[in-house]
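Hi everyone,

Forwarding the result from last night's run.
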Amino acid sequence: MNKEDALISLHKLNYVYLATNKCVIDDWEKIVQLGGLTYPQAKLLIILKEGGQATMSQIAERGLWHMSTVTELVNRMDKEDLLRKQIDQIDKRVVKVDITEKGIEVLNHTKRLYFKNSDIFKGLLAMDKKDLDAAFDVFASICRNTKGVVGPCGLTTALETAENPKCNCLEVLNSLDWSEE
């Protein structure tokens, strides 16, 4: 490929990424509101459900948030009994956070709403799996070719993890009654 084609490809890749990311986030934000959550609240519940108990700094790192954002979010959600804060008995400066049963119920309800109401999910159902797999392979190849120069491509590992999710999404999906469709 020549330099001009590479430049145009870079622009296209950036716009495809940004547009796809915006579609997915807008779709998820719309659904979590139906479940009575905000996007950050749903994201925090997912972090705790999938990763288990975490310190405030671990939450900030995983959520890509500033500590003040985490503190405010955790305090609000603790009052709503969606999560539980505990002061570490060894180091009193450390606060550990865990999801509550109510938080799990709210998150599972939100996931059910997502599968039933998501435009993205419905759109993917209408697509050919081979086409999607080919698209993922292309993105992984781009990542390997560009990141391989400076280190391993995180997308390859992420795609492997995505194909074997640790969340309970498949369980929630399979529990839905699709007969009314």
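The first helix runs from residue 3 to 34.

Cheers,
N.
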